[in-house]
Write a structure and sequence with these properties.
With 104 residues, the protein is an alpha+beta fold. It contains three helices and four strands; from the N terminus they run βαββααβ.
Amino acid sequence: MIVRVWTTGYTLARLDDLIVFARSRLEPFFRNQNGCLGCFFTYDTDEWRTISLWRDRAAVDAVKDSSDYHAMLADLVGSGILQGSQSTRVFKAAGGGIFGPLDF
C-alpha cells in the first residue's frame, strides 16, 4: 500500500469553504479512482493535508497525471482558499489500520 500526502497552506477564514470543497469534490474524485483505497482530510491552524491510500505506485502515478485531477486542483487554487505553496510526499505503508467507527 502507498500513502500520498498533499500539504498546503490555507486561509483560516476560509476553512469551511475548504472542508466543503474536500467533501463535495475531492472525496468523490478519490472514491472513483482505480486503486484508491481511501482518503482523509486533516488540518491545523495553518496547514491542510489530504492523505490518500493507494493499492500501488502505478495508481498514484495515474492520478497525478489525470487531467481531471489537474482541473480540480486548478479550481481549488483559483478559489483563493489556499495560500503559500503545496507539496506532495509519497510513502510505502508499513502497517496499521482503522479500528473503529469514524466520526467526522
